Amino acid sequence: MSHLSALPSRAARWSATHPWRAIGAWLLLVVVAVGLAMAVPTKEVSDADYRVGDSGRAEALLDGSGLDHPPTENVLITAASGSLDQAAARSAAADVTSRMAGLPGVADVGEPVPSEDGTALMVPVELTSDEVDADPLLDATAAVQSAHPDLRVAQAGDVTIDAAIDERVGEDLHSAEFISLPITLVLMLLAFGALVAAGLPVLLAATSVTATIGISAPVSYLVPAESTVTSMIVLIGMAVGVDYSLFYLKRERQERAAGRTTIDAVAIAAETSGHAILVSGGAVIAALAGLFVLTDVTFNSLATGSIIVVAVAVLGSITVLPALLAKLGRWVDRPRVPLLWRLTRRTRTGSISGRLLGPVVRHPVAALVVASTVVLALAVPALSMKTHQASAETLPHDIPAVQTLRAITAAYPSEGTSAQVVVTGVDAPAAAAGLQELATAAGQDGFVTSGATVQASADGRTSVIDLALPYDESDDRATTAIERLRTSLVPQVFDSLDGAHVYVGGGAAESLDYATKQGQRMPILLGFVLLLTMVMMIAAFRSVLLGVVSTVLNLASVGVAFGILSIVFQHGVGESLLDFTSPGFVIDWIPVFVLVVLVGLSMDYHVFVLSRVRELVDGGLPVRQAVHRGIADTAGVITSAAAVMVSVFAIFATLSMLEMKMMGVGLAAAILVDATLIRLVVLPAVLVLLGDRAWPRRRRTPGPVVAPGQLPDQLLVPVGR
Fold first, then answer.
1. CATH homologous superfamily of domain 8-39+193-348?
2. Residue 541 contacts by C-beta under 8 Å, 6 or more apart in sequence?
3. In this structure, are residues 296 and 332 in contact, taking their beta carbons and an 8 Å threshold?
4. From CA 283, how far away is CA 536, in angstroms rounded?
5. SS3 at position 494
6. What is the pTM of this model?
C-alpha cells in the first residue's frame, strides 16, 4: 500500500466489487433522510436566540415585562400631487379605520397622526401578533386608495415588510436554483462530452443535498435551524458534490483511456483523487467549523448544515460514485455529444495549461512579483471595509412596502431609528423621573424627544422610554449617539440612583452590539480557520512549508474577496452594471460567510493540485518538472470545477436582494482569481522557488516520469484481496 490513506481505496474497492450493495445503501440513506424530514418537524431559532449584549438584555426585559412593542402596520396618506388636502386626508383616514377595525388580527386602530410639516397623515394599526396574514390588511388599504384617487394611500409595517422580504427571497432563490442546474449540466457536458458522465456529478450533489436536508431535521433539536440554512446546504452541497465527483471521474476516465480495466481505474482514482477528496473534505469541514467560534445562532445553524452536507458528499464520492463507475464501465461515456466528445478527446490533458505555465516555472520570481502585485492591489481596499447590519437601506427599492417605509421614516423621524432605554431595579416613580431627566439631556444632544413618554410594567419593576434619532440606522452618527448615550448621558443621570440597572436597546444599539461582538471574534475566527487548515495540510503532506504556503494563499484569496466587496458595494463601483444602490457598507454577515466558504472551496483546488504534484515528486520527477506537469494535469479539472462555482455564484449577483448580490459577487470574483491567478501563477512560482525543501519526505531515488495512466505498479491495488 502506498503512503496515501487506505480509507478511500478500501471504500472504493469494496463499492466497486459490491456495486449493488453500495448503490442500495446510498439510496436507503436518501430515503430514510427524506422520511426523517417528513416525520420530524424542524426546530427553528426564536427571536430570543438573536439577542446580543446590552440591547439583548433590554429586549429580554421588555419581553418579560410586557412592554415590548406589539407589531404595527402604518397606513400613510399623502397627496398624489401638490399639497395635501387635510379634509380629504382625514376622510381617507376614517375610511382606513372603518375597514381595518373589523379585520382578524387587528387589536386596535389608532388616531391619525399628522406630520410636522403637514404633508402626511399616518394611521397606526396595532396587530395581535407577528403571524397575522398581511393580505387582508393590504386589500383594505388598496380599497381606500381606490375610493380616494386624489391621494396616495400606502401601507408598511412589521408584517408587510417581513412578508414582502420573504416573498422576494423565495423568488430569488427559486430563480437561482432554476438557472444554476442547467448551467451546471452544460458545463459538465463541456468537460466530459457525454451525458452520463455529465449527469453523475449533478446526481451525487443533488442526492447529497436531499439526504442532508432530511438529516438536518432531527439535528435541529440540538442546533436550532435558521431560516436560510436550507439555501446554504444547497449552495455548499452542489459546490462540493460537483467538485468531488469531477475530481474522481476525471481521473478514472484518464486511467481507462490509458488502457486500465474499469476496476483498476476506479482503484487508482481512489488512491489519488479519492485521497485528495478526503483531505479536501476535512479542510472544508475545518473551515466551516470556524463559524462556531462566533457563538452566533445563525452561524451555528449554517455551520452545522454545511458540515453535514460536506461529510455526506465525501461519503458519496468514495462509495456510491465508485460503485456507479464500476457498474457503468465504458457506458459512462454514453451517449456522446458528437462535437463536444471529439473536442474533449482531441485536447490532450494539460496541453493548453502547460504552455501557459511554461513562463511561470521558467521565471518564477518575475511571475510571483507580478501576480502578487495584482493580488495586493485587489486586497488593499479590504483594509477600509465598513460593515453594518442589513437595514431598510439594503432592501430592494422596487418593493412597495419598502418605498412606503422610507416615506414614513422621512415624514416621521420618530418612526425610524430609536434607542430604547430600559430601567430596572428601582421603583417606577424613581425610574420615571430619571428617564424624563435623561430625555431632556438627550434632546439637547441630537435625539428627537418630542412626544417621548415613559412606560412602566404592571408590576412597576421595569420602565422604558423611546428616544428617536434623526439618522439612518447605518449612519455613523447613530452609532456615535448610542455610544454617548451609554457612556455619558445614562451614567450622568443614573449613577447616583442606587440599585438601578440601565440598558440601551433598539435597532441601532443591536447593530452596534453585534458589530462589537463580531469585531472581537473575527480575528479568532480567521486565526482558527487558517491555523486548523494549515495543520491539516501539514498532516496530509508531511510538510510545514506546504502548510504555511497554503495558509498564506488562503489569506490572499480572502483579502481579494474582501477587497472586491469593498470596491463594489461600499464604494459603489459597478452600481449600474449590477443594478443596485450602494449603502456605503458591506452587510456584516457577508465577510464571515465568504471567508469560510472561500477557504473551504479553495482548499478543494489546493489539495487536488498538491496531491498530483506530490504523486509526481514521489515518482522521482524533479520538482520543477513535477510542478509544471502536476498543475498542467489538474488545471482542466480545476477550471471546470471553478467554472461551475463562478457561474452559480454569478447568478446570485444578478438577484435583487443585496445580501444575495454581495455573496455572489464576493465568491464569484474571489474563486475566479483563486483558480487562475493564485493557483496557476502564485502557487507554481512559490513551489518552484521552494524546490526540494517543500517535499522533505519524498523518495529521492530517480524513477520514470509519471502521468495519468502511467502510475507505478506499486500504486495499483489488487481488487478482492
1. Multidrug efflux transporter AcrB transmembrane domain (1.20.1640.10)
2. 547, 610, 614
3. no
4. 7
5. helix
6. 0.81
At which residue does the C-alpha cell 442547467 appear?
A: 182
Q: Angle, to 10 degrees, between the axis of helix 19-39 and the axis of helix 6-17?
A: 100
Residue the block writes with cell 465527483: 245
Residue with cell 412597495: 400
Secondary structure element (H or E) that encloses residue 76, with its range? strand 72-79
Task: Please give the class, per CATH, of domain 404-512.
Answer: alpha beta
- Top CATH class of 72-163 equals alpha beta
- HEC profile of 507-570: HHHHHHHHHHHHHHHHHHHHHHHHHHHHHHHHHHHCCHHHHHHHHHHHHHHHHHHHHHHHHHHH
User: Which tens digit of pLDDT belongs to each residue from 368-389?
Assistant: 999 999 999 999 999 999 888 8
Element (H, E) at 388: strand 387-388
Residue 127 main-chain phi, psi, to 5 deg: -105, 165
Cβ neighbour number for residue 80 with a 10 Å cutoff:
12
**CB contact at 8 A, 54 and 505:** yes
CA dist 4 and 303 (Å) reads 29
**Beta-bridge partner residues of 418:** 468
Closest CA to 89 of 79, 98, 74: 79
pLDDT digits (tens, 9 = 90+) for 630-662: 888 888 788 888 888 888 888 888 888 898 899
Query: CA 69, 72, 75, 76 torsion: positive or negative?
Result: positive
**Stretch (H or E) spanning 355:** helix 351-362
How distant is the alpha carbon of residue 461 from its chain centre?
42
